[in-house]
């Protein structure tokens, strides 16, 4: 059985720990902070087998060097091959290596190219779990620091095509903030209203809203629903000079991301 555990880091980051029971060797996804990972390993008598990186931002990679120094063995570090991340031992290109076999793991890892937030961002799927870094958030998506709107839309559409019960393990607890924007652009979405109430209750109980699921995100995430009639109408009302424009999905997505950037 694969267990997935969250280690909280910084203000709102999640570092995900993958453990194939009953193994004591684990992998971590996007360890921006080595100290919290080491504390977790030692408290649970676990050994770090490797690291999976989604992109180059320091809050996802900042702990790699220290974890390599901490590990007694040569630590395997996977990550995108075109983002020049120090410490990667196994650079990945999704088109050339779409599947990974990891020591101590019974299932293969699928590697997906999901550029947009950064130029070389990748995601990983194992069993019914998606580790998508800063591409897809619950109720939102990552900012476009390096990629284009077309790239990000294509990446999100690729993730949206995963099985409905796929659990979404993103790297930040941004859900409540994202849902405020989602409700502003899609106020009559009952599934979104219900999810917002659940997320508020979880927050009050100091519980995580992550993981989400692909089914839920298809229903409530405006960035997966940019062609929805109400969302398009909201975009036109917000950008008043577009009242009579015919917006295709990419145009709607681009304006939606621009609106969220300044929300």
TrEMBL record:
Question: Subunit structure of this entry?
Answer: Monomer.
Pathway(s) annotated for this protein in UniProt? Secondary metabolite metabolism; methylglyoxal degradation; (R)-lactate from methylglyoxal: step 2/2
Cite the EC number: 3.1.2.6
Question: Which transformation does this protein catalyse, written as a reaction?
Answer: an S-(2-hydroxyacyl)glutathione + H2O = a 2-hydroxy carboxylate + glutathione + H(+)
Q: Where is Zn(2+) 1 annotated to bind? A: 55, 57, 117, 134
Q: Which UniProt keywords apply?
A: Hydrolase, Metal-binding, Zinc
Q: Which SUPFAM superfamilies match?
A: Metallo-hydrolase/oxidoreductase (SSF56281)
Q: Which domain of life is it from?
A: Bacteria
Q: Does the keyword Lipid metabolism apply?
A: no
Instruction: Describe the location of the Metallo-beta-lactamase domain by residue ranges.
Output: 23-172
Report the source organism: Shewanella vaxholmensis
Q: Name one GO molecular function term.
A: hydroxyacylglutathione hydrolase activity
Q: Does the keyword Zinc apply?
A: yes
Q: Which cofactors does this gene product need?
A: Zn(2+)
Q: Any idea what this protein is called?
A: Hydroxyacylglutathione hydrolase
Question: What is the purpose of this protein?
Answer: Thiolesterase that catalyzes the hydrolysis of S-D-lactoyl-glutathione to form glutathione and D-lactic acid.
- Describe how the cofactor binds: Binds 2 Zn(2+) ions per subunit.
Q: Which amino acids does the record list as binding Zn(2+) 2? A: 59-60, 134, 172
């Amino acid at each position: 059985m694969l267990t997935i555990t969250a280690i909280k880091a910084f203000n709102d980051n999640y570092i995900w720990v993958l453990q194939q029971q009953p193994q004591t060797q684990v992998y971590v996804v996007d360890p921006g902070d080595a100290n919290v990972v080491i504390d977790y390993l030692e408290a649970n008598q676990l050994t770090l087998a490797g690291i999976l990186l989604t992109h180059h931002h320091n809050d996802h990679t900042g702990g790699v060097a220290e974890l390599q120094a901490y590990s007694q063995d040569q630590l395997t570090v996977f990550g995108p091959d075109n983002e020049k991340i120090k410490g990667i031992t196994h650079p990945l290109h999704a088109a050339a290596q779409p599947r990974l076999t990891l020591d101590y793991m019974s299932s293969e890892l699928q590697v997906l190219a999901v550029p947009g937030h950064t130029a070389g961002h990748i995601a990983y799927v194992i069993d019914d779990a998606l580790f998508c870094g800063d591409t897809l958030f619950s109720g939102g998506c990552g900012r476009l620091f390096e990629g284009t709107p077309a790239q990000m839309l294509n990446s999100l559409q690729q993730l949206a095509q995963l099985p409905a019960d796929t659990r979404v393990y993103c790297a930040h607890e941004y859900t409540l903030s994202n849902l405020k924007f989602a409700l502003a652009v899609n106020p009559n979405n009952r599934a979104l209203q219900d999810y917002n109430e659940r997320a508020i209750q979880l927050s009050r109980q100091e519980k995580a809203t992550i993981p989400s699921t692909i089914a839920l995100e298809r229903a409530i995430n405006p960035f997966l629903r940019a062609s929805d009639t109400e969302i398009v109408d909201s975009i036109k009302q917000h950008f008043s000079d577009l009242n009579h424009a015919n917006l295709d999905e990419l145009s709607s997505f681009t304006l939606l991301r621009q609106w969220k950037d300044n929300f």
